[in-house]
Amino acid sequence: MSNFLLNFKKTMIPFLWLILLTHIRWVNAADLANVQTSQVQNIFILAGQSNMSGRGGVINHAITWDGVIPPECKSNPNIFRLSAGLTWVKAQEPLHQDIDLSKVCGVGPGMSFANSVLKRDPNIGAIGLVPCAIGGTNISEWARGGVLYNHMIRRTEAALRGGGTLQALLWYQGESDTVALEDAKLYKFRLRRLFKNVLHDLHSPTLPVIQVALASSIGPYKEQVRKTQLGINLPNVRTVDAKGLPVGMDYVHITTLAQVQLGQMLADAFLQTQTTQAVLLPIQSVTSNAPKSCSNFVLDLLLSPFR
């Protein structure tokens, strides 16, 4: 049996690589033909779990999206998104459709946020959104060195190679940490460590981090997690409280209209940072402490059994 497995790996892995690398080249060529990377001037990371990824309008027991896109979330020629193939494409809902692959994605806060920023500051220039959120993830899965953390850092580095300035990290996560008491107790330590690591590894110590305090939970420890989120004491961190926003029939995911409102709240918080911070440091070339390997998240998952 061991010889069979060895021979299988020797013959199949090169074949798998050929298929995946061919796919990546095709995606990159198609996207680069449509968008000039130099257009993107302001880069925002979208990270966390499903409410950042977007479940607005996901219906029929979470198996389909109703396709309804509010006016506040419509495409705009000055809003781009970084695709799974690490190239800029025109942004449209669902923003995480090729990133959060295990679930059906719907409307999230990202497009409402970007449209609101452009409306209130029309001179800011083109916006580039970097979707990184994955539904159902515990904050322990976002620790430095893990797949999700490395994925976020590598995608951000790729976004910055085309020029532009990293403007903020938008973070909405924590529902998964309300299930177990131990996770709720450790949430403060893990959250602070995450934010500090991101700022360090992206060489951007003044980067604003705008997090969302939970509107819902999966388990009984929501208030403990919310207490941490609302009480975090880091100089770059602002907190937007989602409590009271409408939640869907699953009692976990906020509705499409709630996502619109949340995006506007995030825009308010970001624009406030512009009045209290003289200059955001531009990043022309970025290196990080995250391990360098394949730049595609799907490849990381597919090839992990062979590493």
TrEMBL record:
What Gene Ontology molecular function terms does this protein carry? hydrolase activity
The leader peptide range reads 1-29
Give the top-rank taxon of the lineage listed in the UniProt record for this protein.
Eukaryota
Q: Which Pfam families does the entry link to? A: SASA
Which stretches make up the Sialate O-acetylesterase domain? 41-272
InterPro entries per UniProt:
Carb_Esterase_6, SASA, SGNH_hydro_sf
Q: Is Transmembrane one of the keywords UniProt gives this record?
A: no
Keyword Hydrolase applies: yes
Q: Which UniProt keywords apply?
A: Hydrolase, Signal
Protein name as catalogued: Sialate O-acetylesterase domain-containing protein
Source organism of this protein record? Anisodus tanguticus
